[in-house]
Structures are given as C-alpha cells and as structure tokens.
Amino acid sequence: MSSTSFTSVSFNTASSWNLKRREGGKAYVRCGSAASSENTVRVGVLGASGYTGSEVLRLLANHPQFGVALLTADRKAGQPIASVFPHLATQKLPDLIAVKDADFSHVDAVFCCLPHGTTQEIIRGLPNHLKIVDLSADFRLRDISEYEEWYGQPHRAPELQKEAIYGLTEILREEIRNARLVANPGCYPTSIQIPLVPLIKAKLIDIKNIIIDAKSGVSGAGRSVKENLLYTEVAEGINSYGVTRHRHVPETEQGLSDAAHSKVTISFTPHLMPMIRGMQSTIYVEMAPGVSTEDLYQQLKRSYENEEFAVLLGNGVVPRTHSVRGTNYCLINVFPDRIPGRAIIISVIDNLVKGASGQALQNLNLMMGFPENLGLHYQSLFP
C-alpha cells in the first residue's frame, strides 16, 4: 500500500468505521470527514477552539457514523485546527471559520460549544432542519426569569426555551430521543443528579437537608485567560468559589425538584482543585425514617444496573477521579455516616466528558437514532 492510500475498517453498523491513513508504517485514526460515507451524519462544531469543542472532536475520532463537516471559532477563523490544538493534527478536519460565514445546508446536526450568553441568538438563527446539542447554560433553566437572575442578562430566545429538552441522558432518555434542541447539563449538576434523583424519587432521603461539597479540575473554568487560573494562582492549593451563588445551583435544584415534585433547596459549595480535569461531588444526606444505607445502595443498583455509564461500585469501594479520566463514566458509591440516620454519597466524573462533551455525544446519538454509546468506549487514562 502506498503512503497516501486509505482503507476502511468494517464495523457492525450500516456505514464503515473511521478511515485510517497509513504513513511510514504507522496507522493514524482520523475523524471521519462528512464525505466518508453516504450514510454519515454531517456534524458541525460551533466554538471548536474551546475545551469542550476539542473534546467533541477527540470523541468523534472514534465514531462510526458522524463526520465533521464544519468547525467555527470566530477568533481563530482561517486557521487549521492543528494550529489551535496540536493533539488533533492527525485528524482530517476542515479549517476553522467564523459563525457568520458558516453554510449549514450540508450539515445535519451541531454541537454548540459557545460561551454562555452568546448561544441563544446564534441557535435562534440556525436552520430548523438541524439537530442541536447546546453545551452552554443558555437553555438549561426552564424559567427564563431565573436565567436572568443567575446569569445577569435577559433570555434572548424564550420561544426556543419552550422546546429545549434538558439532556441528563440516564434520567430523560425518551424526551431526548425525540428532541430537536437539547440543553446539555452542566458538570456539577450531572455529578449530583445522577446519584440523587433515584433516591429522591423513591422517597429514601430528606429533601430539606442535602449538603454537597464538590471539587473540580481547572478545565471546568474554560480556556480563556484569567488571572485566578494562572499556574501560580492554582498550583499547590485549593479554594472555594461561587459560595452560595454558583450558577449550577438553580439547574441542580430544578432537576431535584422535578424528582421530588416539590421545591428542593440545596447547600452547595464548589472548590477549585490543582488538577486539569476531574470532578467529585461528596453529598451528605439525611435518610428517611427506617431507611438504611443499604436501602440507598440497593435503590441505586436497581436504577442503574442496565446503564452503561452510570456505575455503582462494589460495597466499600471509594470512587476516584483517576478512574474516570477521559471517559464518559459516572462512578458512584454510598457510605454510612458516623452520625446516625445520615449517609455519604460520592460521585465522580470527568468534567469535560460526562460533564460536557461525552454526554453531548451520548445525547446526539439518541437524537439521531443510534446506540447512545457509539464513540464513547474509552477507558480511563491511568496512571
């Protein structure tokens, strides 16, 4: 075979697996281009120069059905993706363009990875034929007045908010399957709701006394340059932030209140950790009268025994962020507190994958009628 020839690898779906290019005896897996197959779903990534955009592209490199047709990044327009993210240099991808120059006539679906506050008007202007997964917070809160209160600006697309489906896959799978616009959940709300929603629905815990101590890697703050995220500001220390006013609070309370059919208010404090990625939520709950930690464990086991990405660990095994690095898994476990009647729930995710781009891909798989795990069979990078 010549150094420039291509070969396809068979896969157990209707279309071929990603193309591989052989150069100098080495095989490079390339993200399938939109022209790879007539059955390929043509995907656009808006805001491809940020961390969630780059994670979407990393995950799509192993997806058998999605091909990248469009990449936007206004400040990097005209540049190849390799100049922005050298780790993506082996993928065959289109150059970056400005959103205003994008032609969506040859695109079937988009991942919108733009900052909060900029997404509503852009999505409102997109063609109606597109399936959209929005990774910002702009469509997560059903109450647009609550959005204005927490995000400091009025909602610019209230008519779209009415059709947006909240994309917590394990909880709202059927609604997501039939959606055109999905609001992908935030990282903290994902790590909190996955363990708590089944317990609240089963009335096993007191909804008035939920305390959450959460910790995140620095990538959760995005890629823009900020003084408090400089290496010398973050390394060798931890700090709380957004105390009582973190923007993920109303989103989390919205989901928990839906599960309880009544208003849930949480005590939530996030912390910035000197690591790149990873998130842990340690949740302290008061159990309902007569309920034990074993009851909580068994309820989570029943709820998630057939789920691929929400995983209840064996008794006594403590979830670790190292165990989910680069993956779409949420690992959970339950422990008895020293205080009678209370329990400690620990949940870990990769904030960029299950907390963002991985769950977004899981959702788009559902929306396009594919198995939701396509492109997500990554094991943790360890050590």
TrEMBL record:
Reaction(s) catalysed (UniProt annotation): N-acetyl-L-glutamate 5-semialdehyde + phosphate + NADP(+) = N-acetyl-L-glutamyl 5-phosphate + NADPH + H(+)
EC top class named in words: oxidoreductase
Keywords attached to this entry: Amino-acid biosynthesis, Arginine biosynthesis, NADP, Oxidoreductase
UniProt cross-references to Pfam families, sorted A to Z: Semialdhyde_dh, Semialdhyde_dhC_1
Residues of the active site: 187
Annotated EC: 1.2.1.38
SUPFAM superfamilies: Glyceraldehyde-3-phosphate dehydrogenase-like, C-terminal domain (SSF55347), NAD(P)-binding Rossmann-fold domains (SSF51735)
Keyword Oxidoreductase among record annotations: yes
A single MF term (Gene Ontology): N-acetyl-gamma-glutamyl-phosphate reductase activity
SMART domains, per database record: Semialdhyde_dh (SM00859)
InterPro entries xref list: AGPR, AGPR_AS, AGPR_dimerisation_dom, AGPR_type-1, NAD(P)-bd_dom_sf, Semialdehyde_DH_NAD-bd
Pathway listed: Amino-acid biosynthesis; L-arginine biosynthesis; N(2)-acetyl-L-ornithine from L-glutamate: step 3/4
Domain Semialdehyde dehydrogenase NAD-binding: 42-179
UniProt-listed GO biological process terms: L-arginine biosynthetic process
Family: Belongs to the NAGSA dehydrogenase family. Type 1 subfamily.
Protein name listed in UniProt: Probable N-acetyl-gamma-glutamyl-phosphate reductase, chloroplastic
Annotated organism of origin: Arachis hypogaea (Peanut)
